Amino acid sequence: MRRSFADRVAVGTLAGAVALVLAGCGTQQADPRAGGGASGGPSCPSATPTPGSTPPLTRPTATVDAPRPPGTPSPVPSAANSERDGVRVTGVYSGVVDREGVCRPNGLTAAFSVSGTAAREMTYTIIFDADGYTGVTRIVGPVRPGKTLRGTVAIRRSVGEPVSGPQVSVVSVRSVQTAEAPSENGPCPASGVRVWADRGDAAMGLRVTGLHLENCGTSPYTLDGRPQLQLLDADHKTVEGIRLVPGDEVANLDGSPDVVRPVTLNPGERARATIAWRNTVQTVGAPVNAPYLRVRAKPGAAPVMVTPELDLGTTGKLGVRAWQKE
To answer: What is the pLDDT of residues 174-189, one digit of tens each?
Structure first.
């Protein structure tokens, strides 16, 4: 069973990141073309469904030659502006404009702002959602201290699901220091390696997430052992009292032995380490939730922060398998 959409908050999903450029007057602006966002140019005719209605079972289609009505996206009624952890939905508009500038009426465009309230430059992973629509994860940043980022995000209609209204919600916000943000794509970090987490999987109370490393540098990179991990709570404070144990003590997923051995990666090669945990609640005490995980590939390596959303129950342990070449 896959995790619910809200559980799969992954900073590593950089393909949907919003590209940012610095603007004046203390405000940063998101590129409206990124991630299918709407611009102030072409717009879609109003196609906001009636609350309680069911969208058609056919998906919308469009071509690059489709008409592009002039004007701006049409505002639609919204019960209230959704706000969470410095991220605020500032407007909802009918229709979306894709990367090619094609008008697609079967969706919503939400305008949002992100306030940089932290003392450091941060990168945010945000989940937007609306009833009857497909939730969207956006990675936005860097956001400088004291600055405000503004952008738009396109939310597509879910085929066959009833629509209760055009209210767009901020479901989840996670933030990491930009210097520690994972990088599955883009320029190679100064460390010469990329580190990121996949979306993970869950079944019968067992959660599994892969940690991935790619040598994007010009020299061989050697790993010897397990990644070094630090768990942090929603306030970025260290979670104490959790034992890091060999992965086989939680689950042997593929039957192969969890053996520590040197792994040397030539430029372009990758390695993978798996973390596994159970969310069982067996004893008296509050369940442990640690959304953030600071990863060092080996002793002395530059830290990278990922967000596997660790719900450890009362088990008190996290299984970590040794690095293996992919």
So the answer is: 999 999 999 888 899 9
- Classify residue 184: in a domain, yes or no: no
**For 52-108, what is each residue's pLDDT tens digit?**
444 443 333 333 333 444 334 455 555 446 889 999 998 888 777 766 766 667 788
Decide if 144 contacts 128 (C-beta within 8 A): no
In this structure, is residue 188 part of a structural domain?
no
The overall pTM is greater than 0.85: no
For the chain, give the percent of residues with pLDDT over 70.
71
Examine residue 95 and state whether it is found in any structural domain, yes or no.
yes
Residue 245's pLDDT is: 95
CB burial class (10 A; 0-12, 13-18, 19+) of residue 172?
buried
Is there a single domain that holds both residue 141 and residue 45? yes
Q: pLDDT tens digits for 30-63?
A: 433 233 333 333 345 444 444 444 444 333 333 3
Q: How far apart are the C-alpha atoms of 66 and 82, rounded to whole Å? A: 33
- Find the length of the chain: 326
- Point out the domain boundary residue: 178, 210, 225: 178
What's 253's domain CATH number?
2.60.40
Residues 152 and 217 in one domain: no
Domain hosting 53: range is 5-60+67-178
